[in-house]
Specification:
The protein has one domain. The protein is mostly helical. The longest helix has 39 residues, at 49-87. The chain has helices at 6-17, 21-36, 49-87, 92-123, 130-141, 148-161, 168-180, 186-206. The protein contains 8 helices and no strands.
């Protein structure tokens, strides 16, 4: 009989409560958006941008940093979901799709947050041409589906619908939002994804379930 060490217990506790990072991810992402407030569109006249940043640069900077931390916690949440699916012996293609989707979404989210911080600095710099500032503004405010969220959601949907590895409500919600990521309502769907991450994080932490034992070796029939 092997007794669990303190390291094992700390690791188990970390694995159980890591999904709560989804709550922090949702809170920081929402908080960053609210702190930034109304953001100029890509079609905003270049001449109007310096005045906007003279007034709102502090809010944009703070919101960008909140979103930056939120993106990191979003990656932690995504990896915790991958870990739960692996413990339940999810197929490799599902596990791979989750990791790839998390990586893509994290890179995009970090870039968007960093761009907000950069815009706040450029917007107050009198030596930056408004036309150049508008070019950065277009990149920060006009964007399409990244595919990261969509891939993760569709993988979770497959894990629940095809293999019953996650609750049915989570699987079907992930399927609908995953498909919506690639439609004209993708931005609205991404906002709902943050709310789903918070709810799923709480559920996964409160009801961790039991991992499926993995065989150390595979019996091969010969002869």
């Amino acid at each position: 009989m092997t007794l669990p060490t303190s390291l094992d217990r700390r690791g188990a506790a970390l694995d159980r409560f890591a999904p709560l990072s989804g709550v922090l991810f949702a809170g920081l992402t929402l908080g960053g958006n609210l702190l930034i407030g109304p953001f100029p569109e890509g079609s905003t006249p270049a001449g109007d941008l310096p005045a906007y940043y003279d007034t709102h640069a502090g809010h944009v900077t703070a919101g960008g940093y909140l979103a930056l931390v939120g993106a990191i916690l979003g990656a932690v949440f995504g990896v915790s979901v991958w870990s739960r699916l692996r413990d339940r012996s999810a197929p490799p293609i599902v596990l791979g799709a989750v990791l790839v989707g998390v990586a893509v979404q994290t890179v995009v989210a970090l870039q968007n947050a960093a761009t907000c911080v950069l815009l706040a600095e450029l917007g107050r710099d009198p030596h930056v041409d408004p036309g150049a500032l508008q070019a950065w503004q277009i990149g920060a405010s006009q964007f399409g589906p990244t595919g990261g969220f969509g891939l993760v959601l569709l993988a979770i949907a497959a894990a629940g619908i095809a293999f019953r590895l996650v609750p049915g409500w989570l699987a079907w919600a992930a399927l609908l939002l995953g498909i919506a990521q690639f439609t004209p309502v993708g931005f609205l769907a991404s906002l709902l994804v943050t709310a789903l991450a918070a709810v799923a994080g709480i559920v996964l932490a409160v009801r961790p379930g039991a991992p499926v034992p993995r065989a150390d070796s595979i019996a091969l029939r010969v002869g």
